[in-house]
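Entry 14. Structure prediction run on the chain below.
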Amino acid sequence: MSARRADSLQRLEREIHACRLCPRLVGWREEVAASPPRRHRGERYWARPVSGFGDPRARVVVIGLAPAAHGGNRTGRVFTGDRSGEWLFAALHRAGFSNRPVSERRGDGLRLRGAYVTAVNRCPPPGNRPTPAERDNCLPYLVRELALLERARVLVALGSFAWDGALRAVRDLGHEVPRPKPRFAHGARAAAGSYVLLGSYHPSQQNTFTGKLTEAMLDEIFERARELGRRSA
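Output returned:
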């Protein structure tokens, strides 16, 4: 990545952090930060929109729904500080994308190699359900991230919301996407412009506690993503 593109990615991060486009989400992220559960009392919450992070030269981009109210909204890093993040970063470490299996917050020393982690929405939505307008307000940030991650070729969508958001972002970049829209499923694969889109169940407690998603299933997704990324090099 050129120095100019790296600077552009940092400017985009600062723009995301200052966003207040969605009044409902602004109110919610600040409300949960002001009244945290007992386990997080005394901690200072990030309570701002959360940008993506990772290797600017990444071949693989992992896309989630949004930061968790007491996860990324607290730590300042998407998929950090909750059970979903524990599963994700452990899997990224096993696949060779991360220098450590645990991430606690921004600046904790975790580094990604060949991967970038982001989300469709940048603020935690009540009930994990952004409205269509809130999704559309946030989607341009994902579009701009993908444009700046010029080596990215594999998009791993964690859940159906991320699958739909990824396809919308690819379309907004000017790429041709399949018609009819490919259906989400764990292990689903679709060609979308210059990208390969892979679907995975979200590593939420609902999925991991019930066995709907296992470590082996998640590992297989990232093994496939790594191999597809290598083929496109």
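The longest helix spans residues 132-148.
Filed with the rest of this week's runs.
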